[in-house]
Amino acid sequence: MTVNVSDRGPVRLIEMNSPPVNALGAKLRMPLLDAIRAASRDDSAGALLLLSGLKTWCAGADIKEFGLSELPAPEASLNAICDALDTCSKPVIAVVDGVAYGGGLELALACDYRAVSARARFAFPEVNIGLLPGAGGTQRTPRLVGVERALRMCLDGKPVNAGQALEMGLADRLLEDGLTEAACAFAEEMLAAGAPVRKISSGPGKLPRPGEAAEVFDGARQLIARRMRGRDSPELIVQCIEQAVACRDDFRAGLAEERRRFVSCLKNPQSKALSHVFFAERAAARGAGGAAARAVERAAVIGCGTMGGGIAMNFAIAGIPVTVLETGEEALERGLSVIRGNFERSEKSGRIPPGGAERSMALITPTTDYGALDGADFAVEAVYENLDLKKRIFTRLDRALGSDAILASNTSYLDIDRMAEATGRPGQVLGMHFFSPANIMRLVEVIEGRHSSADTVATAFSLASRMKKVPVWSANSNGFIGNRMLSGYMFEAFELLFEGTPPESVDAALRDFGLPMGPFQMIDLVGLDLGWRARELAGKPLEERKPGERLGDALCERERFGQKNGRGIYNYSPGSRVPEPDPGVAGLIEELAEELGYKRGPPAGAEEIVKRCMYPLVNVGSALLEEGVARAASDIDIVYVYGYGFPAWRGGPMHYAEQQGLDGVLEDIRGFHDRFGARWTPAQRLVEAAAAGRGFGEG
Length: 699
Known about the structure:
Blueprint: E1 3-8, E2 11-16, H1 26-41, E3 47-52, H2 78-87, E4 92-96, E5 99-101, H3 103-109, E6 113-116, E7 121-123, H4 137-145, H5 147-156, E8 160-161, H6 162-168, E9 173-174, H7 179-192, H8 214-227, H9 233-246, H10 251-267, H11 269-285, E10 299-302, H12 306-317, E11 322-325, H13 329-349, H14 356-362, E12 364-367, E13 378-381, H15 387-400, E14 406-409, H16 416-420, E15 429-434, E16 443-448, H17 454-466, E17 470-475, H18 482-499, H19 503-513, H20 519-526, H21 528-538, H22 547-557, H23 583-596, H24 606-627, H25 633-644, H26 653-660, H27 662-676, H28 684-692
Helix pairs in contact: 1-2, 4-5, 4-9, 5-8, 5-9, 8-9, 9-10, 11-25, 12-13, 13-14, 18-24, 19-24, 21-22, 22-23, 24-27, 27-28
């Protein structure tokens, strides 16, 4: 049974029981609607309790239904259930234990009262998949808690706990243990007191008069411009709540406008893209297969620089004691100081709870002695990209750690198998490529080497999940998934420069596409000197350096290192991150282009810039699927959304190509091949998928 109905005297209990999370799919909606209507007609029922037989009250709509070509029939919709609750002449109490998310919260809001356990959580996460609350959420919420709080809940999608819900008036009563008995007692108390029905829809509630909340709506739009650039549903959410104010005395009119905008979101490609990312993230996290993960009770990190410090923070935040090794006391102290500062800023901003900085620092043990690493179950090497150095470190770790310990490298492109050969435990070696800043960025590429055992890979996945990261499987290959694809993107960006397109035009086109910054802003942020110094240290001959590397080297020789010293591809005013074009750099680009034999022409338009930079991602991604470096196109999308800032509302590069039409993408790539040669040779996987008229994930 998905709905169980029983009586406790005059109280009718309607219990949802549709595992695992009471999702409001058709199999729950119809019996729930029938039970509410039957209880409404039954004179023996004095009050209704709507509760759950599961640990989750109601996790909201069944997201799989959003992919259907047609919406559920109106008579079977959540709106119909909310209407039935609205017209019920008996008090209805939602007894919320666990989460009431999305449609689940809308269901609770259609009830007269909300009694909650301490475990209750309320949220409108629809914005995260390109939607808006479509069953009265944008109309009832501002009436109950006010416009500002309603906007916050609908736009950030973050959960509100039981205490917060009581404080803002979202909940009416906190119930103690023995929830059903306590809820029945609450209902009987309400009946004894003659408590009336109390429909949120019956009046304006806390809605201001039209015009009185203009500043609040302006503030919401400013937030959207800063944090949700390019996304459509946030603006529609604001419009819906504005409509609630405009229709403050006509709930049904506001509801109709909400429904119209909800349907437009549902048909918007952004919703499909964001839903794709939602499911792709969960699929990627299952990439470890069925092997059992080992327990990790103590960790070690080699290197306390930018990456090593961030990785150590991840262990500490996950509650895992970690020993951090550096070559000298000065470097160790400098790294610990950065870690402490990061923790303190995280605590101040609310990313970690009060006192979390000190608790986390207490889990980090500094050392300069490999002998102090004994007892670690899992070690991550995080020094700079030099294979010989990394191999020496792996040899020392192999001697210092117990025979069961797993050894991981944070390398971004070097050969994991070569490192494994430097140990006597190749099956317990793999890559864990964190992205910078490692304590913030959610992506971790888990690189399986030729000898990596199944339980070693499973342990890395489990560990990443404990750190609240998104792990994605990759085979061992130069650059793995992300950086191998990035090389094509960056190469084309530099080609556009040498052909006559200014860096600010390239960056602007890609920002307008949805990236947080263009390639040249990104280089300046990272630092031009990092690549330059690495090439100099490796003794890379001038003739082997790519044109973009030649430009980076020439800029560094002129002490233009990027944002760190205010001069890179762009200039930066003191204290500013706003890029300012420099005529001298434009002259240098033109001079180098002539030296390298480029034919200069008029600047490329935005459409060509986007295709020239995005389609290498698609083509290389297709090759990675062919080679088995990536298992699924959706994994590639997750790497780019979480690791490189690809706009989630476009779904990742592979999903974006499918939405554009693979036949059209292939035609453009063939056109670029005719213009620019072999680097644009189409990948066979792309050719086959386009010819078959299917997506990358379809057989």
